[in-house]
Write a structure and sequence with these properties.
By secondary structure, this protein is an all-alpha fold. The protein is 78% helix and 0% strand. The N and C termini lie far apart (56 Å).
Length: 229
């Protein structure tokens, strides 16, 4: 009797992190509902709803934040993620467009490349728009968006790997090899050996044995050296 009871408790009882997310969501929702003009509070609620796997509720909360502050770029980015989770590709891209337009209104992308550190939601909007294009097999605009994201975050191994995957889908082998090589070397530098080896495997699959060996050599360089004889 004890084992079935314990299993039942594990199934029905919330995990500590989920319970904490709900607590914070409810706290911010209370703040948002108490104030008629707190767009930031509604944006916080949207973020917690996304983490809890509630895209419809996230969409509603982010829309309330945007209604209060129509130039709230981060809220558009959060709503884009909610649309993406609902597989509403066109709506996702539209919100990403707005994020990019708002942030590039003064000085364009050049401002963030040369003068200011780009906000995470700016880079994420290029990435998310690219992924939304890819779900409709629109490889070229997807690759263009990933190229833009990489201009803003050149040493992001994940972006390089995702762009390499899309380049493969588009039949652009040379670009795929370049992307997997860059991703593999960056993962190796970060001591993420498993991810680096995965990139090396993709390079081998594409026939790029020299590049695969280069990544594996970088992984070996990062391994701890033993003092034993």
């Amino acid at each position: 009797m004890v084992l079935p009871l314990l299993l039942s408790l594990l199934v029905t009882q919330e995990l500590p992190r989920e319970a904490e997310l709900r607590r914070q969501r409810d706290t911010w929702k209370g703040i948002a509902e108490h104030s008629k003009h707190d767009s930031e509070a509604w944006h916080k609620v949207a973020g917690f709803e996304l983490e809890l796997g509630n895209p419809d509720a996230a969409l509603e909360a982010a829309s309330k934040a945007i209604a209060m502050f129509p130039k709230y770029a981060a809220a558009y980015a959060t709503r884009a993620r909610a649309h993406f989770n609902k597989k509403s590709w066109g709506a996702c891209r539209k919100d990403c467009d707005t994020v990019i337009e708002l942030l590039e209104a003064k000085g364009g992308m050049k401002r963030f490349i040369e003068l200011e550190r780009p906000p995470a939601h700016y880079i994420a909007s290029y990435r998310l728009r690219g992924l939304a294009w890819s779900w409709e097999s629109a490889w070229e605009p997807a690759l263009a968006d990933f190229a833009s994201a990489l201009k803003l975050d050149r040493n992001n191994a994940q972006l390089h790997g995702e762009r390499a995957y899309l380049a493969e889908k588009a039949g652009r082998k040379a670009d795929a090899v370049e992307g997997w090589l860059r991703a593999g070397l960056l993962h190796a530098d970060a001591r993420a050996a498993a991810k680096a080896q995965e990139a090396a495997g993709n390079l081998e699959r594409l026939g790029a044995k020299k590049e695969a060996a280069q990544v594996r050599a970088k992984v070996e360089e990062g391994r701890p050296k033993s003092d034993l004889p």
